[in-house]
Amino acid sequence: MSNKVFKEIYLIDDKDIDRQISSLLLKKYNKNFVVHSIQSGRVAIEKLTLAVNLNSKLLPDHIFLDIDMPDMDGWQFLSEYKRLGFDKSKKTEIFILSGIFNSEDVRRSHSESMVKAVICKPLTLEDIRKVLSPE
């Protein structure tokens, strides 16, 4: 894709290899993506808090969020994200990443307006095209 639009993307996953592969695929899809590879929900909340304190325009355009992480799982991250009001600062699209297809995760994601899709890991180029291509 040759889209020249710069977009900030947070890739939140506790597994190094998943972050590395997903980051490469996102950059392959669009070389102008700025991908922030973040190892935990808690670290992501810290980065988001810093970004909002500097300028709310620094919030990411998209978040790819692993649901199953130690310390703070994806659902806890979403609760904290809303509690801190990040969902009101910028219209960030969130995509849930799950290692297994879980109908409960899909059902639960429908109750979160900022969650746009649930993607079964590993993330593929086709998944990225489906969720990020303009309609």
From TrEMBL:
Keyword Cell membrane: no
Keywords, in A-Z order: Phosphoprotein
Residues bearing PTM 4-aspartylphosphate: D66
Keyword RNA-binding: no
Signal peptide: none
Superkingdom of the source species: Bacteria
Domain Response regulatory: 8-135
GO biological process: phosphorelay signal transduction system
Name of the protein: Response regulator
